[in-house]
Amino acid sequence: MAPLLQVRDLTLRRDDGSGSAILNASLSSCASDLQNLSLEVQEGEVLIVQGESGCGKTTLLQCIAELNVYQHGEVLLRGQPAKAYGVPNYRTRVQYVPQRPSLLPGTPLQFLDKVKEFGARKTRCEETKKEGRTSPDPVAMAEEWGIQRILWGRDWSMLSGGESQRIALAIALGLAGADVLLLDEPTSALDPESTAAVEKTLLSMLPDAPISAPKGNNTPRKGTGPKALLWITHAPEQAERVGTRTLNLSRR
């Protein structure tokens, strides 16, 4: 059986024309041999992505979500490329959650209603119903993380970084249908209490981790949400708490 997610020989060049490649430092000690990045993710895993600023962590996640153009390689979900699903549908299955949502017009509730009207999202909603998966209420979920319901009716521009971060993540989980969530520092603007609440929710929605994976967190898993997480964090303590494996990136 194919892994949940595979990245094969992925190479991309930086926009500045320098020709420097995104590297996987864990594959070899010789930087000149690291032009192609490969990884596999199984159901239940939380792959931590680490590396110094500018090494390509966000770019990697955007490539996996087919939001960024790469020059070589392929990304496979359950053994199939994005075009086999249709790229819009694939993006509902492999979903990127930015560190902080760009300033958007309107309110989070208006944004949520708009996203639900996308054709690919409607298709995925019908598919998840057949799979027996339910969509959690994002407003109720965010309330568990300290977000008052009234905040959903305020313009994005009126929200703090921590508020918008939690709301965006709640929307991603509430839309359901994602097999893989790509999380770009999802708790970077949160206090320790809110961070712990978000971590608990995310881990509880996963299926059981592979037997070989270290259990860094004792949160019971219900298997009601995404099948795996790729999680960028600069906090070693968080990586230890939530991760099953770590991918370290560097750049030439």
From TrEMBL:
The ABC transporter domain is annotated at: 5-249
Q: Which UniProt keywords apply?
A: ATP-binding, Nucleotide-binding
Q: Which Gene3D superfamilies match?
A: P-loop containing nucleotide triphosphate hydrolases
Q: Which Pfam families match?
A: ABC_tran (PF00005)
Any idea which GO molecular function terms this record carries?
A: ATP binding; ATP hydrolysis activity
Q: Which domain of life is it from?
A: Eukaryota
| Record keyword Repressor present | no
- InterPro entries under this entry? AAA+_ATPase, ABC_transporter-like_ATP-bd, ABC_transporter-like_CS, P-loop_NTPase
Whether DNA repair counts among this entry's keywords is no
Name listed for the protein in its UniProt record: ABC transporter domain-containing protein
